[in-house]
């Protein structure tokens, strides 16, 4: 299984179009990316799926969908965070995008989701998935 990385905020990111063949390599890159301003990146699998990932300091979010862009769009969440209010903000295409806090999970959880996606192209069972 392999995925292709795309940075959706920082133009000229040398990782853009990089192919990751295993979860460890992708996680190392995303841990480095998480040190930047909160922003979105995308991983595209060779199984016609993609994972939109918001990376922030200590937390992030993940949306699973098809490469075609057709619904469903599924957001990773943790049961204990379903009733959280407020929002976090992540850069995408030069603008800030709002993400409800109920979909913001610890960065370690986001990285678990990433590992599973890179290895399988599918949805991790480490989280629940809400259709938005």
Fold blueprint:
Blueprint: E1 3-7, E2 19-20, H1 23-33, E3 39-45, E4 49-55, E5 59-66, E6 74-77, E7 87-92, E8 95-100, E9 105-106, H2 107-120, E10 128-131
Antiparallel strand pairs: 1-2, 1-3, 3-4, 4-5, 5-6, 5-9, 6-10, 7-8
Helix pairs in contact: 1-2
Structure description:
The chain is of the alpha+beta class. It has one domain (3-131). Helix content is 19%, strand content 39%. It has two helices and ten strands. Strands 1, 2, 3, 4, 5, 6, 9 and 10 form an eight-stranded antiparallel β-sheet that branches. Strands 7-8 form a two-stranded antiparallel sheet. Helix 1 (23-33) packs antiparallel against helix 2 (107-120). The radius of gyration is 13 Å and the shape is globular. The mean pLDDT is 95.
- CA radius of gyration is 13 Å
Following the backbone from N to C, one meets helices and strands in this order, namely EEHEEEEEEEHE
Q: Biggest β-sheet, characterized? A: 8 strands, antiparallel
Termini Cα gap: 27 Å
Structural class: alpha+beta
Number of H- or I-type helical stretches: 2
Task: Give me the count of strands.
Answer: 10
The percent range for strand residues is 35-45%
Which shape, going by the Cα principal axes?
Answer: globular
Q: Ranges with pLDDT <50 over ≥5 residues? A: none
Average pLDDT: 95
Number of domains: 1
User: Percentage of helical residues?
Assistant: 10-25%
